[in-house]
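call fold(seq) -> C-alpha cells
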Amino acid sequence: MNALALLAAAALAAAPSSNKDTGGPVFIAPKVGFIKPVTSLGGDLFLGGEVGYLTPLLQRRLALVLEVNYHRPSTSGTLRGPQLDNLGQPIESPYTLAEREVAIQLSAVFRFPRALGPLTPYVGAGPGLYLHRATVESFDSTASESGSGPGFQVLAGAELPLGPGGAFLEAKYHFARVDFLTTGDVNAGAVLAALGYRLRL
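ret:
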C-alpha cells in the first residue's frame, strides 16, 4: 500500500502543473490594434511586434518584453492666414496635422498562468524611447519637425492557449511628451487596444 502511494506521489510530482506556463521561454508576437491619442488627434490603426523571455524568476511568471510599434494619427481643420483679400476678409486654408510615432519599449510583465480557467491574465510596465515626427500641410506648404524622448507604458491583457503559443488581447497606456512648434508642449501618449498571437520557441 505504501509503495502504491509513493508511486502515485511520484507520478503527480512528475506531471506538468495545469497552472504553470508550458513551452519554451522565448516568444515572439505580431500585433495589430487601434490607438486613440490623449490629444485632439484622431484614432488610428497601429502595428507592432514583440520578442520576450520568460525568466525562471517567480515560478516562471516574470517575462521581459522588448516591443516596437508604429502609428500615425492625424487631425484636420481650417487655419486663418494673416493676409487679407480684396474684400477685407481673412484668408482661410484647410490643414492636416499628422503625428508619426515609433515606440521602442522594454517592459517587465507578470503573468498569472491559467488564473481564469484557460486564460492567463498579465500586467506589466516599463520605459520606452519614443521617436516623433509632426507634419503640417497648409497654405500650399508642408512643415515637419522631428524629435525623440523617453516615456513609459503600462499594460494589461489575457492570453488563450492556441497551438504552439497563444492568442491574446491587451490594453495599454503610453505617456510620452513632445514640444514642437506645431503641437506645443503636450503628452503625445495614447490608449491602445491590440490583439495578436504569441509563438513560444
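The beta strands are 26-37, 44-54, 62-71, 74-84, 90-111, 120-138, 141-162, 165-180, 184-187, 190-200.
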